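At this stage, I put together a protein sequence along with its fold in token form, as given directly below:
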Amino acid sequence: RLYALLAQCQSSSLQIPGRDGFLSDYARRTRLGTGRAKLLGFGGEDAAAIMTTAETPGLAVVGGVAVVPKARGRGMATAALGMLVEELCRESRSVLLAASTDELVRFYESRGLVRCGEWRLWRLR
């Protein structure tokens, strides 16, 4: 269900890897307790997803929020973000989010999140 929802949301700012690799990686992270995902429904169907890409005992990195096109503009991303951040805070984890676009930066800031630094991207030549 998670992969099917994410595939509906694929865009220039949300690139989804191949199904088998994604599901294998997600299953491993879930099994090890280093990642999780939440699905939210709307109108009896999966409408939004949010997941962590990494977790340690004191920290979690939220990979992003995805909302299917027909459910956008209904507060689903805000609800998903609030639900996961609240859960992580109850577990005494600091929460980090990555924003790949100015639109995401504005979204996070409008929900009360504060920029605490910048990540730099590195790659092998």
